[in-house]
Automatic annotation (TrEMBL):
GO molecular function, one term: triose-phosphate isomerase activity
Organism annotation: Methylobacterium marchantiae
Protein's UniProt name: Triosephosphate isomerase
Residues the record lists as binding substrate: N13, W14, K15, G176, S215, G236, G237
Protein location: Cytoplasm
Function: Involved in the gluconeogenesis. Catalyzes stereospecifically the conversion of dihydroxyacetone phosphate (DHAP) to D-glyceraldehyde-3-phosphate (G3P).
Source domain of life: Bacteria
Designated gene of the protein: tpiA
Amino acid sequence: MTKSGRRPLIAGNWKMNGLRGSVPVVEAIRDGLSPELTSRIDVLICPPSTLISSCVAAVYGSAVSIGGQNLHAKASGAFTGSISAEMLADLGASYVIVGHSERRAYHHETDDGVHAKALGARRAGLCGIICVGETQEEREEGRALDIVRAQLAIGVPKGAKASDTVIAYEPVWAIGTGLTPTPADIAEVHASLREMLGQLIGPEAQKVRILYGGSVKPGNARELMSVENVDGALVGGASLVAADFLGIAAAYA
Ligand SMILES: O=C(CO)COP(=O)(O)O
């Protein structure tokens, strides 16, 4: 548990990476986690949808969870190429990333769309990881807090609970760049998100986990995970290498 009493979550977002030959990476993560560590933290891998079934089979009976990277808000219908929350749950997924900045940027996802998808995730019993984050320009203009608070206010469904909602703060300019905000800047954003959550969902806000994502590596994980109101990490590139992902999880060892 973090000092706050929230159970940390270390989540890996594989993005558009991985073929069937990549499943051994998940097996190595599964086998590299000690029972003592997994008694205190949650561990999640979100592979491409094509690998969810085989990854669910690979972690069956272990402490590792599998999630999706995106979903359609509807349960079914004429939405060619889309995948619903129910389909992800049917495959054994238990989490789903909602509103990742790469989808906001390249697929024109809106805050209202994120809200609808978060409702879809809850409808199917999935825990939605709602992503917020500012661009370099927005940070340089001093608008980072305004941007992420607005994304949260619109994206988080009414009545959201710690059991169905996780927040991930991922500054766009830190994703894939090797750059991270200072611990003080991360603390400021996470505190502001926690306060905004309190306005939205009341006392439950103290239980909802807020992850940090954006160039989390084994070398910076301990410092970043020690920041107040940081309840874990959403890891991209480093989650593709079992040793690196385990090195990040070890921040909580
Ligand atoms: O986008 C991210 C996780 O969703 C972060 O990616 P990196 O860890 O590669 O910066």
